[in-house]
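Late entry, zinc ion complex.
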Amino acid sequence: MPEFLLSHEPAIRFGFFFGILVLMALWEVTAPRRPLNVSKRSRWFSNLGLVGIDTLVLRLLLPAAAVSTAILAAQRDWGLLNNLRLPGGLAIVVAVLALDFTIYLQHAMFHFIPTLWRLHRVHHTDLDFDVTTGIRFHPIEIILSMGIKMAAVLLLGAPALAVIIFEFSSTPPAFSTTATSVFEGVWIGSSGSSSSHLRCTGSITPF
Ligand SMILES: [Zn+2]
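Prediction complete; structure with ligand written out below:
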């Protein structure tokens, strides 16, 4: 199973990302929480266009990405966990929790440092609130976020499987901005203030 995940990771990630996006979008259409003020078509064009640009920029500038960094760290014995030699399962749990905490700190940093907030507010200033709000990020934030994640993977010596589990588990929360009658995201930052909301997760791309 881990070998299958590692060798098919890009295709699985792509399917997982768009599968959840389509499911949430259908749910939103059938059970909307609130009426939208702006044409969905123009917002989706912008938001999904940004996802496309983010993915392209990321692939061009940091093609190795987090999983490849983890594989390289394991081959060279770099990072804490590759030297502690914990039992496999424990190393994965520790790595997933540590990566999640890193991305939590990263999000706080993007809110509290004015220069970074100027990038992050792209996400918070969406004109409406739906499933695509959670994946709307400035390309520079995407690059910085991946750089931080790769540095954390290197320092931790995170197992590749832990990185995959962490990245897959980040996808559903990223779509928790879904405005269905069941999910109610808390969204205060639409006026450009630095107020946070409950579920602003790490920036993600389909690949
Ligand atoms: Zn935020």
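Residues 107, 111, 120, 123-124, 196, 200 surround zinc ion (CB under 6 Å). Will revisit in the morning.
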